[in-house]
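Workshop exercise sheet. Pairs work together: one partner reads the sequence aloud, the other fills in the structure field after running the prediction. Swap roles for the next sheet.
Pair: D.N. / O.F.
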Amino acid sequence: MLENIRLDSFRTKKRAVRKNTQSMKFTLKLDDIDAEVIQKKIKNLNLRICPPDGKIRISAPLHVSQEKICKFAFSKLEWIRKQRTRMHNQVRPLPERFLENESHYFCGQAYPLKIIINNNSPFAELSDQQIILNLPPNAPTAKRRAVLNEWYRGELMRLIPPLINKWENILNVSVTSFHIRSMKTRWGSCTPKTGRVRFNLELAKRSPECLEYIVVHELVHLLEASHNSRFKALMDQFYPDWRLCRKELHSLVIPS
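Structure field:
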């Protein structure tokens, strides 16, 4: 299959681009799947599957040959197909308008929105089995979303530190800092060299078990950076139900 891909024109084009620009782009055909490739000043060869439609994007260093990129992409083809199928089968949330009685999740439970219009500083709170949004008159959707997200952020800042403290002691690791971010493709991330961890804002909506799973997952990366057999063995040892939580999170689309 690789032999059928013409690389000569790409190689010629790449040499020309190196003289004039800092990057080059082309489309690679992986059977029935198109992959967008960009070569630029980076160190590693990376492949991403982008939600919600499963577009394939490959980034590669400028010095890597087109043939090596092709071999890398085709070696991942089975995994790509599985991930695209999973992505297409994910539950897709309805568009959010942040209106009265619209359902929004917190800690795995759905709550209706209660909208209160006043001239006070906007804020959100959970009260009487409702998420209450205090908003100024004529607040647009973007403002409503921002107010609710700020509340979600505050709740995660309350919920996550005790979990980090618990699992630092169990795993004998140390987190130097953690951050809450909006992320399109990950529930969390970790930089083992620095001890920094990041958590997706969307975790405020998920069950406490899923939140704890992501905390454990990222802290285990301080012991094992990759997702190899040792990493999985550590997860099995310390958080035996992690696969159930992973399955639950994989069934959901992270809103963009």
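Discussion prompt: Helices lie at 8-20, 66-75, 77-88, 141-171, 208-220, 229-238, 242-250. What would you look at next?
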